[in-house]
Amino acid sequence: MSNLTNNELDAPPWLRVESTLMATARLVREAFDARLVPLDLNLTQASLIGYIAEFGATTQTLLADRLGIGRASIGTVIDRLEQRGLVERHPDPADRRVWRVDVTDAGRTIATQIRDIDEVLRAELRRGIGREERQALSWVLTRLQQNLQSAINHT
Fold first, then answer.
1. Which residue in 34, 44, 39, 59 sits closest to 106, CA to CA?
2. Residue 154: DSSP 8-state
3. Cβ within 8 Å of residue 102, ≥6 positions away
4. Are 36 and 46 in contact (CB under 8 A)?
5. Residue 30: how many CA atoms within 13 Å on its side-chain side?
6. pLDDT digits (tens, 9 = 90+) for 132-145
7. 127 Cβ contact list (under 8 Å, min separation 6)
8. Which strands form 87-92's sheet, in the order they lie side by side?
9. Taking the complete model, does pTM exceed 0.85, yes or no?
10. SS3 call for 97
11. Are 98 and 92 in contact (CB under 8 A)?
12. pLDDT for 1
């Protein structure tokens, strides 16, 4: 625990909460990306497959919103997964201008492997962090997100 900051306000700028949060987010992504290498996937691709496997076929726009990436970027992710036979696009029956993305049978198989990797890594990431601590962290992060959204809306 000696490397943990006791008082964020007294910490140098590179150890303040925002910097620590960004560094942690990068490490989480790196950890997931490393674990997903055997599946030849990255976290974004795995998240897309997992989301569709859980919630069913959905539009590219909704996927972009849910994964927090741009519409052009989501199109590229879908293109790569479609080339690998893990997802497929179908015209929306209600609006032929809209494409719905669904997982294939191969995508469902890999979604199970993604869930297994996710379960193991999350257990490792949460080691030594109790339920109450995770709830408090979740509350703080949600509040930080609300504050950030408010700051963005005021620009």
1. 39
2. T
3. 52, 56, 57, 87, 88, 90
4. yes
5. 6
6. 999 999 999 999 99
7. none
8. 58-59, 95-103, 87-92
9. no
10. strand
11. yes
12. 43
Which two structure tokens, joined as six digits, stand for 79? 């293109």
Structure tokens given for 128? 């030594």
Token pair in block for residue 81: 């997964």
User: For tokens 């519409």, what's the residue?
Assistant: 71
DSSP string, the chain: -TTS-S-GGGS-GGGSHHHHHHHHHHHHHHHHHHHHGGGT--HHHHHHHHHHHHH-SEEHHHHHHHHT--HHHHHHHHHHHHHTTSEEEEEETTEEEEEEEEE-HHHHHHHHHHHHHHHHHHHHHTTT--HHHHHHHHHHHHHHHHHHHHHHHT-
The owner of tokens 């625990």 is 1
108-121 per-residue burial string, b: 16 or more CB within 10 A, e: under 16: eebbeebeebbeeb
